[in-house]
Amino acid sequence: MNIHFSAAAAAVAAGAFAAPLVAGEVAHYTFPSETLGRDYAYNIYLPDGYEDSGLEYPHMYLLHGSFGNENDWVVKGEAQQTLDRLIDEGRIPPAVVVMPGSESWWVDGYNEPAETAFFDDLIPHINDTWRVIDTREGRVIGGLSAGGYGTVNFVLEHPDMFAAAAALSPASYVPVPPSNSSGNRHPAYLDAEGNFDPAKWEELNYTAYIDDYKAQDTVVPMYINSGDHDVFDIAYHGAVLYQEMREHQPDNVELRVIDGDHEWQVWVDTLPEALEYVFSFAARPQGTLPQASN
Asked: How does DSSP assign 139-164, residue by residue?
């Protein structure tokens, strides 16, 4: 007797022995931003079962780098695959992750009021549109390079808004960006004559906010990392930031320096640890699961 065992049948048979990986969903959305005077674009990751669970979820804002967009973390950063795997393995809770787009360095720079739009338009929109836990304990943030810079600024300015933060290769340069950094060429920091404005950088960098942060009582745990061969010397600048934070909150800041440059491989490799770190401080999904029918 001949037995024909198709590839499809093989997949079914394999599935009988290994549970399939849970799979979240990523979708792209826009909404009108009054602050920006244009549509605000973002991608959102919804965990497996979101549609029918009725639960409210912890959520994360994951910020892209300089001259990037809302697609970077999905296309280059393997965010969906990483989130699926970590949730499936129980390393992070089921969570919603918002990956917004910005034409600035997440600041109210010369080109657009990106920070104001983030807090006044994006966060209220996400709270109203998706089932997320709308409290500090339900909200975390992270980002890479310029998005790491934005992350640091946001939590130091608004510690009441975030339970934890992850700054991956943060472009938080002191006193100004190195000559090879795109910060020197980005419209956010270019004056009317098109020249980099060091006073604007100093006004918007984390050094302008850290003293006020230390003077209040709320602590935001922070994960910081960098590649050891980072072409912008972020291993050094990250260590300076780490020391500033460590003096204030020694038990709530971490620094990792790994092999690599200022590159996607570093961020893909370290995203799992960063996610585990921030979500360890976040609330769990809230609500009651629907009862299964007999």
From this structure: EEEEEETHHHHHHHHHHHH-GGG-S-
